[in-house]
Amino acid sequence: MPEPGTPVSQSPQSVNPSPQPEPPSPQRSTWLSERARALQPSLTLAITAKAKQLRAEGRDICSLSAGEPDFDTPAFIRQAAAEALEAGHTRYGPAAGEPALREAIAAKLSHENQIPTGADQVLVTNGGKQALYNLFQVLLGPGDEVLLPAPYWLSYPEIARLAGASVRLLPSDASSGFRLRPEQLEAAITPASRLLVLNSPSNPTGMVLSRPELEGIAAVLRRHPQVAVVCDEIYEFLLAPGHEHHSFAAVAPDLADRVFVVNGFAKGWAMTGWRIGWLAGPREVVAAASALQSQTTSNVCTFAQYGALAAIAGSRDCVREMAAQFNERRALLSDGLRRIPGLSLLPPQGAFYAFPDLGAYGLDSMTLCNRLLDGVGLAVVPGVAFGDDRCIRLSCAASPATLSDGLERLQRFLASL
Ligand code: GLU
Predict the structure, then answer these.
(1) Beta-sheet strand order (sheet of 228-232)
(2) Which residues 6+ apart lie within 8 Å of 280 measured at CB?
(3) What single-letter DSSP state applies at residue 239?
(4) How many Å is the Cα radius of gyration of the chain?
(5) Pocket test residue of 43, 64, 68 for ligand 1, highest count of atoms within 8 A of CB
(6) Which atom of ligand 1 is nearest to the CA of 381?
(7) Whole-number percent of the chain with pLDDT over 90
C-alpha cells in the first residue's frame, strides 16, 4: 500500500484491468464484502415498494408508510426544469453543482437560516442521503464514534457503519418527549466521539428542538472540541402551529468550524424523485466531499438542478401552502390515533409522521406491522427500524380520506387482538 499522500502511480501496472477474481473456493461462501454483508436495506423504501406492488396485484392496500409528500412538484419548478432541458442543459456540470444553484443555496442559508455561507461551502448532492453519506465518508473512519439520539431515522446508523464508524445511541422515549438532554449528551461523549447527529424536526418522532435546548447542546459541545455536528434540517418547513425551526449553526455561530447542515428539496417542495439535496459547512470538508462525489457519481442531473434553482430562488408560498395542509393532516392523524384505546401518542410537533406506542398490545413492532399488512392491508413502518420496538411509524403525507381509512383499519385490527 502506498503511504498516505503518495501520488498514485500511473505505471502500466496500475492502469491495467484488475486481475480476474479467483473462482469460488469451498471456503468462500459469498462474494460479498464484510461491509455489504452488514448492510441493512432501507425498510422505509422496502415497505413502500411492497405496498405499491401489492396494490398493483389487486390487493386493497392503504399505505401510510412513505415519508413522501403526495403533492405534485409545483408547476413553476417543473417548468424551469423542462426549459433547462430544452435549452440544452444536458451535459456534465461541475461535480459540486451548478454555480448558480450553489449560490442560491448559500443565500438561502445566509438569509433564511442566519448561517453565513459562501457558495464554496455548498455541495449539491443526490438527495439528503448522499450529503450524509459523503460527509460521513470524509469525516469518519474505524475507531470513530457517531452520537445518535434515538429514535433515529433508519439510514443514519447504516451510513455511519459504511464509513467504518461505530454508533453510540442516546436513547429517549415518549416520557421524556423524545428529547436529547444536554446532561445525557455530556455523559455519552467519549474520546472516540467524532460526530453528533441532530435531526429537528425529527423523523420519526416529530420532535422539534427548541432554541434553549440547542443552546444547551452547544454548551456541552464547547467542552468537547473533537465532536462535530451534522444537522439534518430536511423537515424545516413542516412545523405544527406554535413551533419554530432553529438552525443549530445559527444558535452557536462560534462552532461554525465543526457544524454541517444537510437539507434538500424533497419534503418542503414535494420533489422526492428529483433527488436534490445539499451539504453545507466548513470549506475543507465540503471540498473533500466534493472530491469524493467527483470520483463516484459526478454532478446531480443538470437540468433537474435548474428546477431546484427555480424552487429555492422563488416564493415560499407553495411550501407554506403544502405545510398548512400537512398541519391539518397531522392533526387529523394525531386526533384519530389518540382515540384508539391502549395506544399512546406524543403529538408530533413537526415533520409528517406520528410515532405511537403500541407496547400495550404485547407484539413486537415487526410482527405488528406484518400482521397489519396481511390482515387489514395497512402498510406502516415498524418502530424497531428507528430504534424503538414499542412504536410504529405512520405517515400523514396522504390525503385526509386515506388517513381516515388507515385509522379505521388500525382500529379494526387492534380491536381484533
Ligand atoms: N425519508 C423518508 C422516510 O423516512 C423517505 C424514505 C427514506 O429515504 O428512508 O420515509
Answers:
(1) 122-125, 277-280, 259-264, 228-232, 193-199, 145-149, 166-170
(2) 105, 106, 109, 115, 117, 121, 122, 123, 260, 261, 263, 286
(3) B
(4) 22
(5) 68
(6) 10
(7) 89
Angle between helices 127-139 and 283-296 (to 10 degrees): 110
Within 10 angstroms of residue 213's Cβ, the number of other Cβ atoms is 20
* Prediction pTM value: 0.92
Q: In Å, how far from its chain's centre is CA 401?
A: 27
Q: How far does CA 229 lie from the centroid of its chain?
A: 15
In a mutational test of the pocket of ligand 1, which residue from 153, 275, 381 has the highest number of ligand atoms less than 8 Å from its CB? Answer: 153
How far apart CA 408 and CA 378 sit, in angstroms, is: 10
Q: Name the residue type at position 309.
A: L
CA of 66 to the centre of ligand 1 (A): 7
337, containing H or E segment: helix 317-338
DSSP 158: H
Measured N-to-C along each axis, helices 365-376 and 400-415 cross at an angle, to the nearest 10 degrees, of 110
pLDDT tens by residue, 291-303: 999 999 999 999 9
Q: Which atom of ligand 1 is nearest the CA belonging to 42?
A: 9
Strand locations in 27-73, DSSP E?
A: 62-63
- Distance CA(67)–CA(92), nearest Å, equals 30
pLDDT, one tens digit per residue, over 3-54 is 333 333 333 333 443 445 555 555 678 999 999 999 989 998 989 888 999 9
Q: In the chain, what are the domains? A: 40-67+317-415 (3.90.1150.10), 75-313 (3.40.640.10)
Nearest partner of 155 among 278, 67, 33, judged by Cα = 67
Confidence band for 319, pLDDT divided at 50, 70 and 90: very high
d(CA 19, CA 15): 11
Per the CB < 8 A criterion, the answer to whether 50 and 66 are in contact is no
Tell me the pLDDT tens digit for each residue of 63-75. 999 889 999 999 9
pLDDT of residue 66: 85
Distance 232 CA to ligand 1 centre (A): 13
Q: Is the confidence at residue 154, as pLDDT, over 90? A: yes
Q: Any idea what DSSP says for residue 18? A: P
Rounded Cα–Cα distance for residues 136 and 164 (Å): 9
Q: Which of these, 333, 325, 349, 320, lies nearest to 239 by C-alpha position? A: 349
Q: Report which residue type is found at 205.
A: T
